[in-house]
Amino acid sequence: MKLDVNVLRYLSKDDFRVLTAVEMGMRNHEIVPSELLDRIAGLKHGGTYKVLKNLLKYKLLHHDRSKYDGFRLTYLGYDFLAIKTLVNRGVFTGVGRQIGVGKESDIFEVAQEDGTILAMKLHRLGRTSFRAVKSKRDYLRHRSSFSWLYLSRLAALKEFAFMKALEEHDFPVPKAIDCNRHCVIMSLVQGYPMVQVKQLQNPETIFEKIIGIVVRLAEHGLIHCDFNEFNIMIDDEEKITMIDFPQMVSVSHQNAQMFSISFQEDRDDETEVEVDENSRPSFYDITKDANALDRELEASGFTKKEQNDLDKVCPPYDLSNNITAYLCEPFIEGGLEKSTDSDEDEESDDEEQTLNEMESLQLQEEKRSDEVEAE
Ligand code: ADP
Ligand code: MG
């Protein structure tokens, strides 16, 4: 699906109101029933249905009638909600060309008012397997199970939190600018992914730099898990920038000690680099820094709970296989529920809360437009 940001211009306040209502409804419904949507959006005279038609036309929603009449956001709809929020915050003013596409992300250039170009990464966790599994899932039983919306948001939050923490410790990473929903805004890295570079002027220096980064990560209690030529950018001056660390784990993570040991053994064999046993950080040394780092991550909103949720669907590595193995099966049947409790009271509480939030959102919106008019 192509991200056509021109559509943003044609979307009215009511369009966004209904789009937001779908997002809120999706917290506890995979497909949001039409009547609930109408109640959350609260538009008069059947306004919601007219707006829904418009949103469908622009492919921001998906209409599902398989079990009951309802709607869910498409990636495009979720993209627009994030973009609108970030534009309102003044983070950027326009979206440019696409500069990268991954299995689970799309990267675009965005421009700020003064012409500065930044990179926008839209996480798309579960893009590949969502459709296949969706049909198997039972609406009531999975009412509170993790959705791709939640998972993509977690992935973005994780990337943002790590990027900020890494930058604070002088690691060569893009500057983390802002984060909303599944979207991370960061500085644009000049240069190319290392995989595209045919010849290096100073391969030894680059090698040392890269190994230096791995060692320094370990000293901070971090394991990258996917440090390769796709995720290292290099510019004409052969400056290195590390991007993309979805699987990065801190040693406080349950498997990290085991992983760290297997990492050290594998590395020595494969690369035949002479490493002085005593100069390597021990697991004990590493854990000293890890707690400080965990606190920094939590400051950005990425807590142990978020890491655990993400681990359940995206185990960071498979120790039985090899060190870079990465299993990602976002919609494994069962075992993913946040709460197995599904009584009716809880549902109506949820709905009440959603309606209240929608109301306060509307008040904020009205206040903001009053302020703009007053200026
Ligand atoms: P994925 O998680 O899908 O692998 P990446 O973060 O590795 O996504 O980005 C995919 C591609 O997008 C990269 O290989 C690179 O070409 C480009 N890219 C990502 N982030 C930036 C950035 N900050 N500046 C410039 N290009 C970037
Ligand atoms: Mg990558």
TrEMBL record:
Name of the protein in question: non-specific serine/threonine protein kinase
Entry keyword Glycoprotein: no
Catalyzed reaction equations: L-seryl-[protein] + ATP = O-phospho-L-seryl-[protein] + ADP + H(+); L-threonyl-[protein] + ATP = O-phospho-L-threonyl-[protein] + ADP + H(+)
Residue ranges crossing the lipid bilayer per the database entry: none
Protein family membership: Belongs to the protein kinase superfamily. RIO-type Ser/Thr kinase family.
Cofactor dependence: Mg(2+)
Domain of life from the UniProt record: Eukaryota
Compositional bias segments (type: Acidic residues): 342-354
Protein EC: 2.7.11.1
Keywords attached to this entry: ATP-binding, Kinase, Magnesium, Metal-binding, Nucleotide-binding, Serine/threonine-protein kinase, Transferase
Residues included from the entire protein: 1 to 375 of 447
Domain RIO kinase: 64-288
